[in-house]
Amino acid sequence: MDNFLDKTLEILANAGGRIVLAILVFIVGKFIINRLMKIFTKAKFVKEMDATASRFILSALKVVLYVVLVVSIIGILGVPMASVVAVIASCGVAVGLALQGALGNLAGGIMLLIFRPFNVGDYVSAAGGEGTVQEISMFYTVLLTVDNKKITIPNGALMNANVENFSSEEKRRVDLSFNLGGGNDISKVQEIMLGIMNANEKVLQDPAPFAAPLAGIPGGLQYTVRAWCKSADYWDVYFALQKDIAKALGDAGVSGPAPATTVVMDK
Question: What digits encode the pLDDT tens for the residues 25-68?
């Protein structure tokens, strides 16, 4: 009986020592990982990369470091690595099915990094979300909307969706429509619209601004206004033209569409 108790106490003492050591290794390892990530983040070669590649690589590196830490702790606890490998192998099918979504997102993140449909800082619309790309990690892409909401989209969904990138090109075209009366002088209306566009410093002259009647509407004509600008100036030009053209047309006495007439037949 005494031998049994002594053996039990010895086993518990050894196990307790390993558990304490594993906890210490985890704490120290986590501290080292955080320090290494800060060093890599400030490293010159990382800063020289574009934001998309650097954030993805740092995210992947962090995952790898934590995997190494977990494997080290398993070894300290005395779990034979051969047993761990055997368990993983025996559960391979189940693990594969459970992780197929995560693996798809990982593959999507790698494809995004290679083909670059967008970069960090671009304004995009994809997979039901729209906003400025804040981060492309291993599994998810984070967008920030114009009203400061964060949208997290799986990378796998992004690779299978149509991506509309509003920032990829240097120039964008502003398209506006104005519904005006059919009795207005078309040349006068065009002159007013073109004058406002030419007076705006952010409107580019190549391609040249354009204004013309587009289609007939009940009681008048629909005019289209097209102006090119730098992508960064899109919304400034959009709102400025919307306001200034409407004001100039009103000051010039340009009328709107004739009101619809309802005819009621009495029996």
Answer: 888 888 888 888 888 888 877 777 767 677 777 888 888 888 88
Could you tell me where the DSSP H helices lie in 43-80? Answer: 44-47, 51-76
Annotate 166-192 with b (16+ C-beta within 10 A) or e (fewer).
ebbeeebebebebebeeebeeeebbeb
Rounded to whole angstroms, the Cα distance separating 196 from 189 reads: 11
- Report the predicted TM-score, pTM, of the whole model to 2 decimal places: 0.60
User: Cα(47)–Cα(4) distance, rounded to whole angstroms?
Assistant: 61
Measured CA distances, 243 to 178, 197, 210 (Å): 11, 11, 17
24 Cβ contact list (under 8 Å, min separation 6): none
Structure-token pair, residue 196 = 């406002």
Q: Where are the domains of the chain?
A: 2-90, 102-165, 171-251
Helix (H) or strand (E) holding 31: helix 2-42
Class of domain 171-251: alpha beta
Predicted confidence (pLDDT) at residue 213 exceeds the cutoff of 70: yes
Q: Which helix (H) or strand (E) holds 88?
A: helix 81-90
CATH says 102-165 is which class?
A: mainly beta
Q: How many helices (H) and strands (E) does the chain have?
A: 9, 8
Longest alpha-carbon distance in the chain: 116
Does residue 151 sit in helix, strand or coil? strand
Angle between helices 2-42 and 51-76 (to 10 degrees): 170
